[in-house]
Amino acid sequence: MSDPASLAPIIAVVGPSGVGKDSVMQALADRDPGFRIQRRVITRPADAGGEEFTGVTPEVFARMQAAGDFALSWQAHGLSYGIPSELYNLRRGARAVLVNLSRAVLGETQERFGDLIVLSLTAAPEVLAGRLAARGREDAAERARRLDRATTPLPEGLRRVIEVDNSGPLATTVDTVLARLQPESV
Ligand SMILES: Nc1ncnc2c1ncn2[C@@H]1O[C@H](COP(=O)(O)OP(=O)(O)O)[C@@H](O)[C@H]1O
Ligand SMILES: O=P(O)(O)OC[C@H]1O[C@H](OP(=O)(O)OP(=O)(O)O)[C@H](O)[C@@H]1O
């Protein structure tokens, strides 16, 4: 764990829909409470399941954005996503702050928070399709749209990228992530 006064790095967890971003974040935090998870604000019904998030209407989201409540925001899958400014406070005294981001905002995030580590998760296409179906949060048409953008590349210019295959058991992925973070003293 880092010095309580210091600011922990942000680990942006990215990858295609169904790859296991939320599951890996939760498993890391379960293994070591020094990993804190940044909850997101999303214009999705609050009872949709999956990750813990704050569900708001598009009107409330727009008001929050206008009020400067978000450190980062973007749109995807017909939804708006916001990262609350509390992200700044979560960094204090943590080992790292985990946040599920769009690959599209990584450049901007790195500019804003110099100390950014990108954890890029991968899995084979058939694994993604099986996991999305098993999760059951989206209908078949929406799952197909999500699978279509599975191969979106990472932007150029990212300084610290750790790519980990999450096709196997979650515990194996967590072991690999922790081992890959070690040399970077996170
Ligand atoms: N390593 C894994 N092994 C088996 N199932 C997994 C693994 N990682 C995630 N899952 C399952 O796959 C589904 C999608 O995972 P989720 O964390 O929601 O992915 P994402 O946030 O990337 O869309 C969930 O039902 C989850 O329980
Ligand atoms: O630009 P991309 O990198 O493709 O990402 C687009 C969006 O997909 C994910 O959302 P969400 O977590 O709601 O969906 P998922 O759980 O199905 O990945 C991710 O967090 C982004 O908000």
From TrEMBL:
- Keyword Transcription regulation assigned: no
**GO BP terms:** 5-phosphoribose 1-diphosphate biosynthetic process; organic phosphonate metabolic process
User: What name is this protein filed under?
Assistant: Ribose 1,5-bisphosphate phosphokinase PhnN
Pathway field: Metabolic intermediate biosynthesis; 5-phospho-alpha-D-ribose 1-diphosphate biosynthesis; 5-phospho-alpha-D-ribose 1-diphosphate from D-ribose 5-phosphate (route II): step 3/3
Residues binding ATP, per UniProt: 15-22
Task: Report the gene name.
Answer: phnN
Q: Which molecular-function annotations from GO does this UniProt entry contain?
A: ATP binding; ribose 1,5-bisphosphate phosphokinase activity
Task: Tell me where the transmembrane regions lie.
Answer: none
